[in-house]
Amino acid sequence: MMLKSELNRFDSESRRAFMLRTAKTALGVTMLPVSSKLAQAAAEGRGGGKAKHVIYLYMAGGMSHIDTFDPKTGETKGAKDPIKTNAEGMMLGGYMEQMAKQANKIAIIRSMTSKTGVHDQGNYLMHTGYEPRGTIVHPTMGAWASHFLGRATKSLPDSVSINGGAANGAGFFPPALSPIPISNPETGLQNIQPTTSESLFKKRIDLMNEFDAGFRKKFQSSEVKAYTEFYDETLNLMKSEDLKAFDLKAEDQATRAKYGMNSFGQGCLLARRLVEHGVRFIEVQTGGWDMHNYIDEAMGRTGGSMDIAFAALLEDLQSKGLLESTLVVLGSEFGRTPNINENEGRDHYPKVFSAVMAGGGIKGGYVYGASDKDGREVADKQATPQDFLSTIGYAMGLPVDEVVMSPSNRPFTVGDKGSAITELFA
Amino acid sequence: MKPSKALKIGLGCLALATASSFAQEAATATSRMWTDSKGRQVKATFVGLDGDKISLQTDAGQIFTFALTNLSAEDQTLAKTLKPAAAYVAVNATVGQAAAAIDKLVAEGLAVGAAKVAKDNAATTDPKQQRVVPKANKLMSDEQFVRRVYLDIVGRIPSHDESKAFLDSASKTKRAELIDKLLDSPGYASHTYNYFAEMLRVKSRLEQDNMRGDPYIGWLQKQIEANTPWDKMVYEMVTADGKMWHNGAAGYLLRDIGMPLDNLANTLAVFLGTDVACAQCHDHPFADWTQHQFYEMAAFFGATTTDLRTAANRKKGKDQMAVVDVRDKLMPEIEKMIESAGMDIRRERNGIQNYIGANRYVISDMESNTLKLPHDYKYKDAKPGDPVAPKLITWSKSDASNPAYKTSKTKKEEKLRETFASWMTHPENPRFAMSIANRMWKRAFGVAVNEPVTNIDDPEKSYNPALLKHLAAEMKRVKFDLKAFMRIVYNTQSYQREATNEEVPMGEPYYFQGPLLRRMTAEQAWDSYMTLVLGDPDKYKQPLEDLYSRSIDLDLTNPKLDAKTVLMKYGAFRGIAAKERALEGGGLEMAGEEMMANKGGKKAAADDTMMENKSLSYGGMVLRRAAEIEQPARSGHFLTEFGQSQRLVIDGGNKVGSVPQVLMMMNGKAQEMLTNKESLIFRTMDKVNSPADKVEAVFLSILSRKPSLGEKDIAKRGMEAAGGDGFSNLIWALINTREFMFVQ
Question: Which residues of B303-324 are buried (b: 16+ CB within 10 A; e: fewer)?
Answer without folding.
Answer: bbbbbbbbbbebeeeeebbbbe
